Amino acid sequence: MEQQEHPARLPKPNPLIHCSGDLSLNTRRLFNICLHHSLAHPADDNRYVIAPEVVHEYLGDEGRQSAAYILKLFENLEAQIIDFDLRNDIHEKLKQQWLAAAERQLGSRAKAAACDIEFRGRLISTPLVIREGRRVLGFAYSWTDLAKLMLSAPKEQVSYTMIDLIIERAFSKVAAINLYENVIRYVDLKTNRTPWMPIGEWTTLLQSSKRKAGSFNRFNRDVLKPAIQEVNEKSDVTLVMETQRGSDRRINQIRFAIERKAGSGVGAFRSEAMALLQRCRLTPNQIRKVLEKCDDAAITERFDYALAEYRAGRVRVFTAYLYTALVDGYEVGQPDFLKNEKQMPLAMEAGAQKREDKVRFEQHQDCLLYT
C-alpha cells in the first residue's frame, strides 16, 4: 500500500464537536483520525482505507497496539450511539435533513430546545482489517448516512473548526479532549469567549453519562480543573473559567475565556518540535524539559547530528543520546557532543535500550517514520 499523506490539521464540522462525553480517550482520538482522513482522501464506494501508520501516529502509541486492539476501537465507535447538540448557527434545512437521517437510523425523534436541537445517532459502520498474509495493510471503514450528510454540508451553511491531532494526541484525559474541542471554535471570535452554558450541559459534554451527576464543587474538582490544567499545559490556547450565580447564589452557568498562546518562547505550543520529539519516544516530561532549554533550530540541528551518528553505528541507544545532547546543551562539533553513551545519565526510562535496539529509522518524504 502506498504511503498516504496525512495532514495533522484539517477542519472539523462544529456539529460533530458538540456531542456527549461517552467516548473513551482512544475511541475519541480514532473518531477524529477517521474524520480528518476522510476529508483529505476520496472514498471508494463510501469505503475509506486508512494506513496503520497513520492510526498509530495520531493515537500516540508508536505502533505498540495490535491490529485487534485498533479494530476493537473501531467496533466501539460503530456501536456508540452519540448524543448531538445542534446549535442555532446550523442552517435550518440541514437540521431537518440530519434529524430525518437520525430518525431513520434509530427510529427516535429529536428533542427541540429554545436555541438548539438534541438528537442521537451513529457515525461509523462496517469496520474491518485489510491484510496481506500476516501483514496489516490498513483499516477500512464507512460513514453512516447521518455522518455523510454532516461531512458533505456546504461550508457557507456550517461553521468549521480547526482541530489539531498533534495537540489531541498529547492529552491523557477524555475531559481535556472534550473541553478543547468545545471551546476552540470560539478562539478567533471578537469576544474570545464561549457562550454562557448551564452546568448540566457542560457535565454532559465533558464526562460520561454513566458517571453520576454531583454538585458543582465535585464536578469542578474532579473534571473541570484537571481538564483546564491539561488544556493550558499541552495545547495552543489558555483557558480561564468564568462563573455566574443564580438568585440562590449558587453557580449555575459557566463559560471560558480563550486566548491563543504566542508562536514562540518557553511554554508556547510548538507542534512540529513536539511531534518530532514524540516520534523519538521521549516522555512528556522529557519533552517539556527539552522545549524549555532549546529553540526549534537547536532541536533540529542536534536531532540531525544524533541521527547521523546512530545510522553510522556509533550510537546504540538513540533516544538517550538525543535527550542528553538536548538537555545538557551540547553543541554540534564540540567534543562533549560525541560522548560515549555509557557516560550518559542513568535517569532514562526503564527499558529504553531494549526498545531502541528494535528501532529502525527511515527518511520518507521529509518525515521520520518508525517501521
Instruction: Record the strand order, biggest sheet.
Output: 2-7-6
> What's the total number of strands?
13
Quote the average pLDDT: 76
Order of helices and strands, N to C?
Answer: EHHEHHEHEEEEHEHHEHHEEHHHHHEE
Give the end-to-end Cα distance, rounded to a whole number of Å. 14 Å
Poorly predicted runs of 5 or more residues = 1-6, 264-268, 335-371
Topology overview:
Blueprint: E1 9-13, H1 14-17, H2 25-40, E2 48-50, H3 52-59, H4 67-79, E3 82-87, H5 92-106, E4 111-112, E5 116-121, E6 124-132, E7 135-143, H6 145-151, E8 160-164, H7 165-170, H8 174-183, E9 197-198, H9 199-206, H10 216-234, E10 237-245, E11 251-260, H11 271-279, H12 284-293, H13 296-311, H14 318-327, H15 352-356, E12 361-364, E13 367-370
Antiparallel strand pairs: 1-8, 2-7, 3-5, 4-5, 6-7, 9-11, 10-11, 12-13
Helix pairs in contact: 2-3, 2-4, 5-6, 8-10, 13-14
Attribute tags:
alpha+beta, three-stranded antiparallel sheet, disordered C terminus, 20% strand, 42% helix, 371 residues, disordered N terminus
Structural description of this entry:
The N terminus and C terminus are likely disordered. The chain is of the alpha+beta class and 371 residues long. Helix content is 42%, strand content 20%. Helix 2 packs across helix 3, helix 2 packs across helix 4 and helix 8 packs across helix 10. The two termini are 14 Å apart. A three-stranded antiparallel sheet has the order 2-7-6. Strands 3-5-4 form a three-stranded antiparallel sheet.
